[in-house]
Amino acid sequence: RRAQSHKMDPTRDKDGTASLFGQIYSVLANSPQFDTMFYTNRRFWAVSFQGEGAEDVGGPYRECLAEMCSELMRPTTLPLFITTPNGKNNVGPHRDKMHLNP
């Protein structure tokens, strides 16, 4: 629910902690295995979407990862990545690209 309300109005959550990415990061960052968790094919969390009857046998986990990536690439949701200057001005190459927000 927090991620959904963040998606609807990201201005109410300036630091992004209510976003799906922010919620998962806050849990995983404190994990003792944080530094090595992506060097394996194990899943490090289970996904349960409230109000949905899906069982996490892979589908909800993939949906969670896809939504996290989508949040990261939406400058209005999480301003970690922003549109390139060429994209903002609609000139030159790489207009569809993003770069880190300084």
Q: Any chance you could write out the topology, listing elements then pairs?
A:
Layout: H1 2-8, H2 20-28, H3 59-72, E1 81-83, H4 85-89, E2 98-100
Antiparallel strand pairs: 1-2
Summarize the structure in words.
There is one protein chain. This protein has four helices and two strands; from the N terminus they run H-H-H-E-H-E. By secondary structure, it is mainly α. Strands 1-2 form a two-stranded antiparallel sheet. The longest helix is centred in the middle third of the chain and has 14 residues, at 59-72. The protein is globular, with a radius of gyration of 16 Å. The mean pLDDT is 78.
Short structural summary:
The chain is mainly alpha-helical. The protein is built from four helices and two strands.
